[in-house]
Specification:
Helix content: 25-40%
Structural class: alpha/beta
Shape: globular
CATH topology: Metallo-beta-lactamase, Chain A
Strand content: 15-25%
Order of helices and strands: HEEEEHEHHEHEEEEEEEHEHHHH
Number of domains: 1
Bound molecules: zinc ion
CATH architecture: 4-Layer Sandwich
Largest sheet: 7 strands, mixed
Amino acid sequence: MLAARKRAETANITVEALRESVRALIGSGGNIAVLTGRDGKVIIDSGYATSRARITDALAKMDPGPIKHLVNTHWHFDHTDGNEWMHSDGATIFAHENTRKHLSTTTRVEGWDFAFPPSPAGAISAEVVDKEKRLYLNSTTIALSYYGPSHTDGDISAHFVEADVLHTGDTWWNGLYPFIDYSTGGHIKGMIKAAEANLARVTDKTIVIPGHGKIAGKPELAEYRDMLVTIHDRVAALKKEGKSLEEAIAAKPTAAYDSKWANSFITGDVFTKLVYAGA
Ligand SMILES: [Zn+2]
């Protein structure tokens, strides 16, 4: 975890112009979305704190407006580590109640074998999103909505309605097997439900920002949903036959997908283990 933070210090931050005043910042932990305008910047996820200088540079090149609002898609540190500095620069932080809860206390993630200490007070969201919340800023509607337990128990999406750009947080990893954080309420069945919800709300025109991986749209989302469903069904069948976790991993249920999806710390075997836990 600390190594990832250290790497972010020198990581390149690239800016991708999406549509209207919405851009993405890529390179510091989870993908970041930025909306600019006279009401100040609205940011979705804050990346690693160590990227502060590079993110500040990238933001200053867009326009001089301060960061006024920050939304956390969920509590994981690669999406919230920058909360404290963004808050000290003037951002009010929005997140789901469960995100607020996990940031407020020591939270252990079994899958990472790491316990995160409570975040500093300034990093913890002041505004809580329950099921749905709409912000009206910079002549734009920002619709926040809760997925229910999926990647964690606090995942929310952010949809810039007029520009039709959707940030899915970590309910979508484009071209990567996703991590599922069972320690804080994540579940494979919830991940599938969230993928279905994402597909149901986008059109062919929607630009979709995944938590990790390349920005894309509906066809890639559909492919991801199909991968989740197929692997879930295979692993569930193995489990039903009475196969142990080790036997299920040995059966290589992800084999046909690994060349496309096993591109991060989540290998086919690790993903099988994550799916088995909830199949
Ligand atoms: Zn995450």
